[in-house]
Amino acid sequence: MSTLLEMSGVSVSFDGFKAINNLSFQIGEPELRAIIGPNGAGKTTFMDIITGKTKPDEGRISWGDKNISLLGMSESQIAREGIGRKFQKPTVFEAQTVRENLAMALKNPRGPFDVLLYKKTRQGAERIEAIAEQTGLADVLTRVAGELSHGQKQWLEIGMLLAQEPRLLLVDEPAAGMTPAEREKTTEMLVNAAKTRAVVVVEHDMEFIRRLKCRVTCLCEGSVLAEGSIDHVTSNPNVIDVYLGR
Ligand SMILES: Nc1ncnc2c1ncn2[C@@H]1O[C@H](COP(=O)(O)OP(=O)(O)OP(=O)(O)O)[C@@H](O)[C@H]1O
């Protein structure tokens, strides 16, 4: 596993308040990583920094095999580098079918003029089928997205992100509002997605985190409080104090 993204000494302040404080973080490729931490720990800001939405005041972020810096890049350049983000609320095209949603998201292999053609090719159709299979949507490809359950919409959005073949996928609270069965399927989906790429999951549901069977990073006051296996992190007295409770 080689390092895909490395953040070092990153800080960001909002009106004098340090939301991220000298944060260092590394993720490999492939790797699945869970991020936990109390409200206000800096989890959202951490993702905003990676995607270029928030620019840090200090620190470095290097990316990929050539260790290029993400700091001078715009949000769209960072997305083109292969960093995808799933927000908590699904944002699928409700009036389009599942197939159409996935087709729109398919990575354009050449230039903007080839994209329409590509979608109609057999290769494109096969990719859509494969992603639908991977995200448990194979039986609902012809359904209008607006009719899907909350869980299915979340999976469709994960599928749309996978269609863009990200090297790093950031996922914010995927289990929120899901039924236990949907949560289990989501776990499986993220574990599979992380076999070929880096996936960062921010989640409060500790049962969900435990099932991911991955390295866990606990953030607190904008820094890493503890990192390691779920058992290592959840037995750390500081993590118990600030997050898990006694
Ligand atoms: N744009 C902003 N302006 C001012 N303060 C901000 C801004 N964004 C975040 N903060 C503050 O920075 C801190 C970290 O916030 P952040 O949303 O990253 O935490 P979080 O770990 O994602 O919390 P939660 O679990 O509640 O989503 C909080 O105290 C928050 O109020």
UniProtKB/TrEMBL annotation:
Keywords: ATP-binding, Nucleotide-binding, Transport. Gene3D superfamilies: P-loop containing nucleotide triphosphate hydrolases. One of its GO terms (molecular function) is ATP hydrolysis activity. Residues 5-246 form the ABC transporter domain. The keyword Endoplasmic reticulum does not apply. GO terms for cellular component: plasma membrane. PROSITE patterns: ABC_TRANSPORTER_2. CDD domains: ABC_Mj1267_LivG_branched. Pfam families: ABC_tran (PF00005). InterPro entries: AAA+_ATPase (IPR003593), ABC_AA/LPS_Transport (IPR051120), ABC_transporter-like_ATP-bd (IPR003439), ABC_transptr_urea_ATP-bd_UrtD (IPR017781), P-loop_NTPase (IPR027417). NCBIfam families: urea_trans_UrtD (TIGR03411). This is Urea transport system ATP-binding protein.
